[in-house]
Amino acid sequence: MESVEASEIIVDTDVIIDYLKKRQPGADFLKSAYRKYRLHITSITVYELMYGVQKSGKSNLINRLLRHVTVIPFDEAAAKKAASLHYALTNKGQDIGVKDAFIAAICEIHKFPLLTRNVKHFSRIPGLKLLP
User: Could you give the 3-state DSSP secondary structure of residue 106?
Assistant: First the structure.
């Protein structure tokens, strides 16, 4: 895991969920990041959050959050990068799952570090910059 100095970051779904549930340490990670960085999330995180609130009907909470971040889409370049990353990891027996491969690819394409608690998965990707 590389140490990073950046002005913009991508926030992973797990940190957002921790913040929404007021669960530590993710909630404090996000509060701290909000003061230091311009925050982005991926369209994959939007999917994961909206899927997660289907039972609770609290999509308004997610929609309010979306006003404070920029959503980066999963585009053709990210799709190509994700396919390459996912294939390489799967071949090594280190599969991280499709959605995490998508998120990692978006981070790499845009050269943004990722704020995540899921270091186990994302540290498998050489060169991906992670923030604790």
Answer: helix
Say if residues 61 and 53 touch (Cβ distance below 8 Å): yes
Q: Tens of pLDDT along 19-70?
A: 998 999 989 999 999 999 999 999 999 999 999 998 777 788 899 989 989 9
What string of DSSP letters covers 64-87?
HHHTTSEEEP--HHHHHHHHHHHH
Identity of residue 53: V
Distance of CA 122 to the CA centre of its chain: 10
* CATH number of the domain bearing residue 46: 3.40.50.1010
Strand order across the beta sheet in which 38-42 lies = 70-72, 38-42, 8-11, 114-115, 130-131
The total number of structural domains in the chain stands at 1
Q: What is the pTM of this model?
A: 0.90
Residue 123 within a domain: yes
